[in-house]
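Handout, section 4.2: multi-component inputs.
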Amino acid sequence: MPAISFTLDGKQIACELARKVTKDDLYGRLKKLTIKGNEVLTRGYLTADGRCVPATAISNSRLDPEGTPVDKEEILYDGSTREALPSSFEEAAPLEKAALACLASFCVTDVYPLEGATLPKGLYSTWFSYRKSPERKEAFVLAKDGGTFLLVGYAKNSPFVGKIVPYELFDAESTAGGDEEDDEMDFAMM
Amino acid sequence: MTTTIHLEFEGKAARLPLQSPKRTKVPPAVQRRTAAGAVNNVRIFNAARRVDPKTLTPETVASSDPELDLSMAGTLADPDLLSTAFVDKAGAVVRDFEEIEVVLAPDGTEKERRPRTDRAANVNDVRPIKVGKFMPVDEALTSFVFRGVYQVVHEDGLGHDFLRGLAEKLEKEKSVAVLGAGQKGNQPLVLRDGGSPYRAFLYGEAGKDGTYRLLILLSNQELKLPA
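Output:
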């Protein structure tokens, strides 16, 4: 397990980042199969000229405007280049105490147990970056009975509404369910 | 586009808009470019050919390239000109197939096989989503992993009073309410046709001057370590 450290009130908190916990680890998963008799069929594609090719025969690629496969590219963030920041394993992220209510407007994408973390129970805001990157993800560390967890994701700005609803504060184009993952599970298992 | 939720609490039901709050931090717009210009993501045919490895002999692999089909390699695969097909081991297209789902336990063992079902959205059904039992808010926030957050808002004065009253009650009791679909109000919520099912919790706060905040928190995972 990779070693990771945080700082809280100037003190270093060293621990280990365990493997990500997914719902598949807890409840199992649903696998979708297409079958004929006992044979499991594989997905393929019919081309315009009637050929049948396996799905593995199509790859994603990046091309420049001249059609040349791109080897080296420049990445712009909001129109400008940015330096890659150290990852969470190279720099200790500061922990700041946060109200538990912050979790009510935080969408979690990844859950990592932190082994060996000696933190008082509570919620701490921080950042997380698995790799060197110009962008760091928002995160919380939650110390509770049953373990300490690193919750990685993004916060949403849910406003109080009065008589008049401020619709400009909501995503106009998003349909409900837009944040959902598309993977399946058998909900009876939860 | 807004989704509507049909919500019932203490014998009163209302159809209300469900909004998606914006992120607090807008992710940066990422552009990739080279000296020639912007980089485009495309799908191309590689040279892979369907072969059964069991049929290959060392001599065949050494003398030829049966796993390669160079006839279309490098050409663009236009998604509009491709149709999905299911093929058997022999490479033949199968037309009369069956779609099933296999339930696997956490250790990967198969528990059940059943016909695949397509879930329909149930938040704006004839049967309203029921505001069920209350649970301490701290317990809910530390026991579940919330994957999505949506906000219920009103469209008129009656809706405002209904939601404000619900938010006040939740805040006063320091609780979240478990939401459930179906006749008994114990089914998970499905927000869109074909979407995933989620356990849902209603989180409420009442603010000053008649303001309120009612959030629907969606979870598909408890916050715990695997057994």
